[in-house]
Design brief:
The protein is mostly helical. It has helices at residues 2-19, 29-56. It is rod-shaped.
Amino acid sequence: MTIGTGIVLFVIGAILVFALDLQIEGVNVDMIGYILMGAGAVAFLVGIIMLSTRRGRRGTVVDDEVV
């Protein structure tokens, strides 16, 4: 879920920066877009790191049954 959220944030930020030409008084839309792109990149990287550490934790399962 983190990887997908990161991609979505990055895409929304890129749309705000590169595709829209909004002029809202008191709000810098380009800066909001860059912040969203940065947050998306961080979320994507965190998701990749979490995925790689989760795969490294696999081990042998020992089934201890007393007969």
